[in-house]
Structure formats: structure tokens, C-alpha cells
Design brief:
287 residues, alpha+beta, Immunoglobulin-like, five-stranded mixed beta sheet, 19 strands, flat
């Protein structure tokens, strides 16, 4: 009986100590660690929550990049981990971490680059874009790829047309649009959004040709395709000076495999019928 009471008291005191440690506040440490050092820390009871890239000049936050010019995407690696038993957290740079940069055009992978952080944990990609328009990027580390932590969707940014020296005030227009969902099914409403970008230009009208005989003059619109197939969608913008600019993209409409019901399969119906007949036979035989 006394041993049981002592055990309960000891357990209670241990719990109070752990609560006091947690309530005392978390201890924060900072140190640059490479992947091998992080692996050793994990063996000591630390949990690594992320190894990612924090950008210094995010293309998406810049006014616009210029076609034909080289631009840099720079950032620094960053890790964060915790030791739950000691209520300690630690972060810092991750030197020599492998980094991947994916460039997208029209939501399709355009190019994939691989780089490596320097001994300070910094990374830099120098790229140029020949054509103006909307692009997207994903940047992630090898740790994120190994732990299924790759960002879901690309971050959008815009590349404006190149202008000659002394022509900063020259007007330009880049026609572009997007549609949701990216892979519609017959009978499903598709939302078309104008993403055109222009300078010193006034757009007077929009005209959509959906490729199936239907059209619209709204800036953003909705359309439903009744049949499967690949359709060429054309968006034409006309300025107040009567000049027209157009962009075309293909959209594929098809029934997804998930939408095909197995109940419509003759083979499935035959199997269920035979199974039911066999089950009835076994029941009757058991009587």
C-alpha cells in the first residue's frame, strides 16, 4: 500500500516538473547546421519541422520583370526544429542544401533547375525570359521533396515586353487568360478570367471565342462544353484606337476516370449476378 502511494506521489512530482519546464517558456537557439548535423540532432531526440528557402527578392512582389533581361532569384535556406523533452527550439541556415526551382507557363512545367546553397546557406538563380506573359515558379529544398512538403501551386509573376533604350513610356499590351477547372468535364461550368496586362493602353472591348461556336463579350465569363474534345479558345482585346490583340489556348474537355461508374460496366453487373446466385445456392444447400 505504501509503495503504491509512493509511486503515485513520484508520478505526480514528475508530472509537476514537466509542467513547470513547459510553463517556464521555450528556450530558443540559433546555429547554422547542414543536413548531416541535422540528422545527428534527430538521433538525439530533436524533431526537424522544415528546411526551406526564404526568398529575398520575390519575383511575385516585383512590379514586373522584363523579357530578354537576366534577373536573379535569391534566398537563404532556413531550418526549424524542436526538442520536446527540454522545451527547446532551434533554427538557422542549412549550408550546402540542394534547391530546386521549377518554372511554369500556362500551369505546365516549363523548366526545372537545380542549385546548391553556399557555405552560408544562400542560394541564387540567374534566369532570363524571352517571351512576355505570365509565368509561375516553385522553389523548394531536397528536404521538402524527401518529406513530401513541396509547395502545392506555383507562385505567379509577370514578364513585360522589352522596350528599346529611351522608350520607357512606350505602350504595350500582353493578352493572357486562365480557366478553372484546368481539366473540365462535359456539362461542367468553366470560368474564364482575363489576365491581360498593358501599359498606356485603354481596352475598349473583349471578345471570347470558345471554339465550339459560342462566344462572349464579357471581360470575365463562364462557359459550358457539352461534348468531349479539344477546343481552341481565343481571347481578343480591342483598344479604343481600334487595334486588336489576341491570345489562343487549347482546352481539353473529357470525362475523368473517377467519374466513370463501375455500375455501368456489363462485366461488373454479370459478376454481381453470379455472386448473388452463388450465395442463394449456398443458403439453400445449408438448409
Amino acid at each position: 500500500m505504501k509503495r503504491g502511494v509512493l509511486f503515485i506521489l513520484l508520478f505526480f512530482l514528475l508530472g509537476m516538473i514537466m509542467v513547470s519546464v513547459v510553463c517556464a517558456g521555450k528556450t530558443y537557439l540559433t546555429e547554422d547546421l547542414g543536413r548531416n548535423a541535422l540528422a545527428k540532432k534527430e538521433a538525439e531526440g530533436w524533431k526537424v519541422y522544415t528546411v526551406e528557402i526564404k526568398l529575398e527578392n520575390d519575383w511575385a512582389k516585383l512590379p514586373a520583370l522584363t523579357a530578354g533581361e537576366t534577373t536573379s532569384l535569391t534566398g537563404r535556406s532556413y531550418y526549424y526544429m524542436e526538442h520536446l523533452m527540454t522545451n527547446t527550439a532551434q533554427d538557422g541556415a542549412c549550408p550546402e542544401e540542394i534547391v530546386y526551382l521549377e518554372i511554369y507557363r500556362d500551369d505546365e512545367l516549363y523548366h526545372r533547375y537545380e542549385g546548391k546553397c553556399d557555405i552560408s546557406g544562400d542560394i541564387k538563380f540567374d534566369l532570363g525570359f524571352a517571351e512576355p506573359g505570365y509565368y509561375g515558379y516553385k522553389i523548394y529544398t531536397a528536404w521538402q521533396m524527401e518529406n513530401d512538403e513541396i509547395p502545392e501551386g506555383p507562385t505567379q509573376f509577370f514578364v513585360r515586353p522589352a522596350t528599346s533604350e529611351g522608350e520607357d513610356s512606350k505602350s504595350w499590351i500582353v493578352v493572357d487568360f486562365a480557366h478553372t477547372p484546368s481539366k473540365p468535364e462535359p456539362g461542367e461550368a468553366v470560368i474564364f478570367t482575363d489576365r491581360s496586362n498593358y501599359r498606356m493602353v485603354k481596352v475598349a472591348s473583349w471578345h471570347w471565342d470558345f471554339g465550339d461556336g459560342a462566344n462572349s463579350t464579357e471581360r470575365d465569363c463562364e462557359h459550358t462544353y457539352n461534348s468531349e474534345g479539344t477546343y481552341t479558345v481565343v481571347l481578343t482585346l480591342e483598344t479604343d484606337e481600334g487595334e486588336s490583340y489576341a491570345e489562343s489556348k487549347e482546352i481539353t474537355v473529357q470525362i475523368s476516370p473517377e467519374s466513370i461508374s463501375t455500375e455501368d460496366s456489363p462485366a461488373t453487373g454479370l459478376f454481381l449476378s453470379l455472386f448473388a446466385m452463388g450465395l442463394v445456392y449456398l443458403i439453400m444447400r445449408g438448409r
